[in-house]
Design brief:
With about 375 residues, this protein is of the alpha/beta class. It has 14 helices and nine strands. Strand 8, helix 7 and strand 9 form a beta-alpha-beta unit. The protein binds nicotinamide-adenine-dinucleotide. Nicotinamide-adenine-dinucleotide (NAD) binds next to helix 1 and helix 5. Keywords: Membrane, Oxidoreductase, Transmembrane, Transmembrane helix. It comes from Paenibacillus hodogayensis.
Amino acid sequence: MKTRIGAARKPYIAVLGAGTMGGGLAELFVKHGFDVSLYDPDPAALAKVRTRLSAADLNCGERSGPSALLGQSVSGDQAEPDEGGEMNRTSPRSSDTLRTTGHFAEPDGSGDSNSAVCHAEERNVSDPSPRHRGTLRTTGHLEAAVRPADFVLEAGPELLPIKRELYAALIPALGADAIVASNTSSLPLRSLADGLPYADRFVIAHFFHPAAIIPLVEIVGLPDTRPGVVGQVAEWLAQCGKSPVVLRKDCPGFIANRLQAAVLREACHLLAEGIADAEQIDRAMTEGPGLRWALNGPFAISDLGGLDIWERVADNLFPQLSAAPDVPQELSGRVREGRVGTKSGAGFYNYGDTEAREQAAAGRERTLRTLIANKKEMSRP
Ligand SMILES: NC(=O)c1ccc[n+]([C@@H]2O[C@H](COP(=O)([O-])OP(=O)(O)OC[C@H]3O[C@@H](n4cnc5c(N)ncnc54)[C@H](O)[C@@H]3O)[C@@H](O)[C@H]2O)c1
């Protein structure tokens, strides 16, 4: 089989898991012209993504883009190796009888009740034009999603045994040169990849919610990762407008989540000590350091304030900060009560009914897009 690493054409992408992150990842890639299969064992999760994308700024309709690739896909050809060993970019078997006719097409007897296909029409000024759209297929068949994929991105539950079981299940369907990535928030790559036959083309690609909007993706490889794999993933993600940061070493939580976790531990500590309530603590962040952090990281900020001042601050303050190794009660107590945040309607705050939550999410996404667009504009030379 020919190697696909470094190939100029756009890869076919399989996203595994259609939850908070998987839905956003599918949206991101389709908007940027990649063909995507989205797999989830839960039909309700797939239906939710289809509903959200059709209601958002992704319109589903007859594809008009000049792509032979998509043409094959819609015509229902199967993915089979050609003589040279390359896979034709065709639809997964379980969804290949589906067509779009101005809306998300529902299954029409293909035997896969979770399958549907849509084409993205992008309307946001900062994103690609409708000409550069991809195709999204949803499926409950793992093999159908994975077999045609050049890049498999796992966004399943953050539980090592579930992830490891899923990785083992990929083996029979995975192309010989397909790259696999996990979107894990916290697990080290070594614990995910150990013993897998494709461990040398397995990386971490850690996105941030909402995945279609936030630019950062942290990428982690191992010393024995095949040369070119990390660079190829970074290149694909850069094509989606992402800002990849490649870590020098595998480490749990990577960079950004370690920084966020340190802040969250201290925020919970302040709450537990009765120094301020959640709203005050959040306001202290968003009206203060949060504004600067969008422009300058902790080292640049220390330089701006003066390292001599920060030396004194660290000396006075570090002994006062929480170093508790356990999950704070402020967090785990709420989880035990089912108050897990916006997805359940309540966490540290109350979020109202589903409609109110969806409206608030859409508002946050608009604000984030504006902030990111302004930041890009400001950083132009
Ligand atoms: N939520 C975030 O802000 C965030 C940010 C960055 C990374 N992550 C990471 O991304 C991953 C997904 O997180 P999420 O927030 O989308 O979780 P989620 O609970 O919203 O979604 C998980 C999805 O995985 C599906 N699933 C269950 N078993 C599966 C299997 N065997 N194969 C494939 N899918 C399966 C579930 O049906 C569900 O739809 C986790 O590893 C998480 O740590 C989350």
